[in-house]
Task: structure prediction
Amino acid sequence: MNLSYWEIKSWLTNIDYTIIGSGIVGLNCALYLKKRFPKSNILILEKGMLPQGASTKNAGFACFGSLSEILDDLSSHSEAEVLELIKKRVDGLIMLRETLGDKTINYQKNGGYELFFKYETLLNECLSRKEAINKMLKPIFKENVFSTKPNIFKFNNINQTYIYNAFEAQIDTGKMMESLLQKVLSGGTKILNNIYVQDFNESNNSVKIKTNQFEISTSKLIIATNGFASQLINEKVQPARAQVLITKPIENLNIKGTFHLDKGYYYFRNIDNRILLGGGRNLDFKTEETSEIGQTELVQNKLEELLSTTILPKKKVVIEHRWSGIMGVGKQKKAIVKQLSNNVYCGVRLGGMGVAIGSKVGKELADLV
Result:
């Protein structure tokens, strides 16, 4: 690459910390590293024009798990592990709000609703275990989290009982990432976009990084690429694609709050009088275990069907945008935050809860270094 002396001297020399990935985790890590080491030279490398994974591609739910998701987690994790997960999500959301401010991220606590199809038996299980889960969560929330509400939004094919969560909220993830980026840049951290890291090699006191544009040396390397982590490191992180669509504005759209359906595999909300609807990877897990950005007919048709038969059966809606984001998941829900070798660290596998835990994982990563 045709780099000048000035470019090499200013951007690519004497780097203390190189962070791969400019999503929620990478940016928060830079923020906290700068607090700890104000004079340090920090460089972030991002392969996309914008953060490439899920940070700006999600639905903007500020949530910690619906009742059925918590029950599902309890089938594969101990109660102590599930409590720890939920506490981390709640603390992460508090941290996010304190870092950026509610107004900046358009934080709205409109509550969350879990909906159940009429043919599902899942509602009965949730109702029978609701009080036990409320009791389990009391130490964190100090009051009951889950209650029931009637079908106030008149969704079709949906059970007349919703499970309501007053603590759930929503944010604008575009505004969140924009302000996070500004905060990081104003602190003196440098970010280079469209830089793809191909390989890295560690020697005694440094790490050599090979990218599609240049090679550099850094004292410490931090990998914050979540769903793309397995391209660089050997950790148990499976990419999981989430497909999303959004409608054009809809008149008299009286839907308010965040909505979960089918164990959280589908989710929707009202944003700017549009319906944002995502999910469906459970239709074909194998195909959606990919780091390829894109849509499939199977999932998109299902999302459209949900929109026209369940969410807005009497309205004619036009879909304006479709996109997908890549999450990092695994059999265990706990994020992987660890030192991999002398000078290499990672904070990955956010399990589809990046908005909630991203800030906290970023800080843990900075503290580890």
Remarks:
- The mean pLDDT is 96.
- The two ends are 31 Å apart (CA to CA).
